[in-house]
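Sync notes, pocket subgroup
Present: LS, DG
LS reminded everyone that the earlier model was apo-only. Rerun requested with FE2/S2 (inorganic) cluster included. Inputs:
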Amino acid sequence: MAHSHSDPSPPATPAPGGRRDFLSKASGIAMIGGLAAGYGTFAHVAGRYLYPSKKDTSGWFFVATTDTFPPGSSRLFQSPDGAKITIARQSEDLGAGFLALSSVCPHLGCQVHWEGHNRRFFCPCHNGTFDATGKATGGPPAEAGQSLPTFPLKVEGNLVFINLALTTADAGPPPAAGPEAETR
Ligand code: FES
């Protein structure tokens, strides 16, 4: 009885010509991939230019004049996106004497106040305390290592400004930003 002859299995490695074809195709695909990545990067950069994201936009907001902002006092300020900020004047120094920090306690979100006489920020909800730079020093925020975020601030002449994120035009008119009220 004759054995039926089955088809030989394909060679484990491609023939020399096949390998060249394979390498040629592989390098072609790699080149197309590189071009696509290059164009993708270009499109991404162009998109950021044409449609800047919220995170890329910020502006300087007037806070107060230095003569109405004595050492030891502070102001509350609301950013266009609703963030509550405390600006404290901690000394006579017109540069380093001012500091702008989030006035929202990182523990559970209560309002933090600057205590000029104690040179600290204080959260009355659970007696959270922060030093003059916003570093947590007591209460739940210190236990969790939660300090107060700071905002860039500058003094030009006798004008105090802070730098805040701006809302984009398609998000509708931003709420009015500005000083809310003087705290202590
Ligand atoms: S919310 Fe500020 S310490 Fe708890």
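DG: Confidence is low (pLDDT under 50) at residues 1-15, 38-49, 170-175.
LS: The chain has two domains: 16-51, 55-182.
Action: DG to write up.
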